[in-house]
Every structure is written in C-alpha cells, then in structure tokens.
Amino acid sequence: MKCAHGLGLLLAACLMSLAGPTRAPAQAQGELLEARRALDHLDVERAERLLELLSSQRPGDPRVLAQLGRLRLHQGRYDDATRALARSLALSPARGDHDWRPVTLELAQATREATADFVEERSADGRYVVLHPAGDQALLAPYALETLRRADQALRRELGGHAPIPLRLEIYASPEDLARVSPLTVEEIETSGTIALSKWDRLMITSPRALIRGYPWRDTIGHELAHLLLARSTQNRAPVWLQEGVAKLLERTWRQPLGSGELDPASRGLLYEAARDGALIPFSRLHPSIALLPSQRQAALAFAEVTSFVGGYRSRLGLGCLEELAARLRAGDDAR
Question: Does the N-terminal or the C-terminal CB of the chain have fewer CB atoms within 10 Å?
C-alpha cells in the first residue's frame, strides 16, 4: 500500500510538471491588478507582457478578457478588442452603471466599423502609420507621415519619453465620424470646435476637407502627439490644463524652433479682456476636457490661459524643464 501510494504521488508530480507552471489565484490577481494599472498609466508594453501570459493561462477569466480588450483597443486591434470585451460580458454580465465594459465595447465596435474600409500607409521604417478613408484622402498621407516623424523628433527633445511603435494616426472624413469613435458627442464637438483627439494610444484628426476653409491640420498632428507623449512620460498624471498648455505651446515645433512662446494677437486680446473683466476661467474648470466648455470663445480663452502659463514657465527655465516636470509628475508630485 505504501508503495502504491508513493507511486501515485510521483505520478501526480510528474503530470503537474508536464502541465507547466501555473499561477496561484492570489498571484494571478496581483498580476491582473498590475496590468490594469499599467494600462491606466499608459505603460502599454508592460500591460501586454502581463496580459499575454495571463490570457494563455486563464483564457476564460472575464476579468482578464476585459483588460485584454482594453489592451487591444490601445493597440488598434479593434476586432480583437470587440471579441474580448463581448466574451467578458457574456461570461460575467454587467452590473450597474459603474461597469465600464459595455461602453468600451460600444466604442470598440464603432471604431471597428468606422475604420473597416480604411487604407493603411506606413513610413519606410514602419515606425509611423496613417489610416484614412479610401479615395482622395490618400493625398494627405505622405504629408501626415512626414509630420509624424518630424514632430516625434522635436517633441521628444522637449518632453522625453517615447511614442508607441508603430505610432498610429487615423484621419476621419467628418466631425460626425470623429464623434463615433470618441467619448464626445457631435454637439460637444461642434460647440467647442474640436477637430482632433489623442486617446487610447493613437491620434485621431478630422480631414481638413471637412471644413470649408480647412485648418492647420499638420500643426494639429503636432498638438495631439504632444498630448500622447506627455501622457506617456507622466504615466497619465498630467492634469488637463497642463496637457493643453504644453500641447498648444509645442504644436508647431515640427516645423519651427520654439521661440518666445508668445500668444498670437487674437489670443492676447481674449486674455487681456478676460483679465480686465475678471472673467478668467479657473484651471479646475477645464477638467475633464476643454471640449466640454460651453462655447468656442470659452475654449479659445482656455487655450490662451494655459498656453500663456506654460509658455512663461518654459521661457523662464529653458530646454529640459518640461522633461524634468514630466519626471516629477511621474514620481507623484502634484502639478500645481
């Protein structure tokens, strides 16, 4: 009996070794929490390493599938994001309004549909990718790729950090299409004059053809890339007022060195009038987005305020101060 019992234990040990290493529930839970925090902090590369391992070992865990769906959305893999989030909800239905999965699933589905027929064009080194509707929007692609490259180089000198590889830019034909793939409504986009976003590790702009007189869309690419780099280099800890001030200040560095950072005459006029009339907008009102302010004039004033502030900071402390600031925010310092 002892021999048989010992043989049984030996056989069980052999089978466990053949099955490979497993994660204890507590360890898996800790790694899942770490992956979620990595995504919150835009450390997408670390989140990918953790979630690839977890999903291979716990393929039916709805919590792992939910975070995997978030990861795939950040990676531009919209089919995979939709499948993972849908399966997570099928295994564990949503409970209450606090569950973010249904909204994220809708966003992934809408983005998958909106980009289904997009054409993809890459830089020679594969580092930059532009996706756009088929047809004459292709005329924008080579200029967009050049802008991404030059803006990436210029902004990294100011902010440090690194963009995702590949860095993706999606060009949408209209503000309505942009609203479909963003948390903003068409009304909010039209009220604030929003034409572009940086979110989920990608840049999204409206085609200049959607506006009667166009707009400086290449500067807008620089603006949105500044958002992305600052968010990544601070682990997503920069408040909206700082994000917008840095992005507005640096949006033209892809084509010209940063000068004094002085505002244009129209913005200076807005700022002067608001200061004179006691109508400046507190920075706290800019959260969660300037796009939610009640008018384009208010949005323009907000940009003037934060750009003036960050421009003064950069002029006083010089090159390297914004990168140092990003490092301090990453370490947990308060931006104010």
Answer: N
Give the type of residue at 119: V
Mark 203-234 as b/e (b = at least 16 C-beta within 10 Å): bbbbbbebeeeebebbbbbbbbbbbbbbbbbb
| pTM of model > 0.85 | yes
Instruction: Give the burial class of 238: count Cβ atoms within 10 A of its Cβ; 0-12 exposed, 13-18 middle, 19 or more buried.
Output: buried
Instruction: Please give the Cα distance from 218 to 197 (Å, whole number).
Output: 13
CA distances for 171 relative to 124, 202, 204, 314, angstroms? 20, 11, 6, 31
- Of 178, 290, 168, 183, which is closest to residue 239 (Cα–Cα)? 290
Quote the Cα angle for 134-139-140, to 5°: 95
CA distance 221 to 203: 7
